[in-house]
Structures are given as structure tokens and as C-alpha cells.
Amino acid sequence: MSTIRTAGLPFMKMHGLGNDFVVVDARAQAISVTPAMAKAIGDRHFGVGFDQLALISDGDADAHLTFYNADGSLSAACGNATRCIARYLMDETGATSLHLTSERGDLQAQDRGDGITAVNMGHPQLLWHEIPLAEKMDTLELPIEGAPTATGMGNPHCTFFVDDVSAVALDTFGPAFEHHPLYPQRTNVQVAQIVGPDHIRMRVWERGVGVTWASGTSSCACAVAAARRGLTGRSVRIDLDGGTLYIEWREDGVWMTGPTVHVFSGTLTHAFLEQIT
Predict the structure, then answer these.
(1) Which of 47, 56, 132, 148 is the most buried (most CB within 10 A)?
(2) What is the dihedral of CA 228, 67, 258, 164, to 10 degrees?
């Protein structure tokens, strides 16, 4: 870290549908990120600001990804950040497909043309102990008001199907369920509205972050929940506050497809890093 503290820390700012990220490429030199450091960088007033920070490092695959939420907590999976990084690596190498790894496991990424990137986020976790929940129960309809569906996508999710997502005060609704006793690791919270055949409108509260414009793993979890409940098929369009993702629950996992943006590149200064490390 001494060289980084002296020279500064390069980073990239990216987003997928307004779900925004600070991305640090640690392949060229060893860079360690602590929860306190991630939280400081994630502050939108005193740092850079992000929903998640993603660290790219070398591994057995094309790259290994590590994710931090804005509150400094670790997250095993982040779908939109994975797509952003896949796009960056494909542009860098000219590859049209990639093999990435994270705590979630092996992730396959594909270039779908016109700047559109798809990632296979793996098979959904449907059993109570996989998600995890605090006790054994049917995950299709939880014993919570509103009977939400629980799904794991490397992180826990709780999906409520409602008549009108715009009528839900997500800034109070989300935290009330993020910390529900049934979810020992907290949970991401989705409110979803079926607006047409295989067409969902969804809003998201992310654990450790708050209201977000979009969420990849939440979109995957919502699509799986809707299909399990017979509300849609296994291939759906999901409209979020920041744009549209297309989700396919296939035999090999849940594929998520959509656009990404590399907004700018910058450097965290020596003075800033000295304050937070």
C-alpha cells in the first residue's frame, strides 16, 4: 500500500442502469481494500460514491472479483458490476466470452453485440439453508405480511409482488425487511409488479446500500420468484428505475443481459488515502 499511498490509487467509475460502482484493477499490483476504506470511498459527500466497490484481481480464470457494499460490508455477488467489468475486460482483450470467479462461484460472460453484455449468475438457491433463512420453511411464500418469496443468488433476496410499485415507500419499506429476523445475513428487498406477459416492473432496496436504481442479482431473484409462482415464464423483461434488464432462467443458470457504461477514470489522491487507511 505504500506505493499507492504515495502515487494515489487509480479507479474507474462505471454503472449498469444507474447501479453505480467504483472499480479498482488490482491485477498489475497487489491492492488491499478494508471495509473501512470501502465505506470511506463509497461516501457520496466525502468520497467518490458508489452502490458497490469491485476489486479485479488475478485468479485461475480470466479474473477474480471481490465486492463491497457502500457500508463497507462484503457481498458475494453483484450482477451489474460483473457485467461492467466483463465489458471492460472484453474491450481490453478483444474476447467475446469470459470466465470470471467471485465468492458466488464461476461466472460466464458473453458479448451480445452493440455494447450489450450478458452474465450467467449461476443457479438460484431455493432451499432455506442455502439463502440462508434462520429456520426451515417453504421459501415460495414466507410467513411475513405480504407473503414474499425468498431466493439466493449468492446473496439473499426477499421479493414482494404488489399491485403498484410506485405506491410503496421503499425508503421505509426496504429497511424494515432488510433486517428481518428470518434473514440472519440481512436481505435485499424487491417490490415487483406484473405489468404484462413476461414483463415486470421492479424497485430495489439493497442491503448495505439503500434504494438503488437497479440491481442485477435482485432482477435475477425476482425473475426466478415470478416463474416459481407461475406469474411469468422463465424469460422476462424487468424494468427498473434506471432502465431495463432481460433475465433468462435457463438450464445452466440465470442469465442477465443489458447495457453498461464506463463513465470516467480517476485517481484517489495520496492525501485522501492517508485519511482513510
Answers:
(1) 148
(2) 50
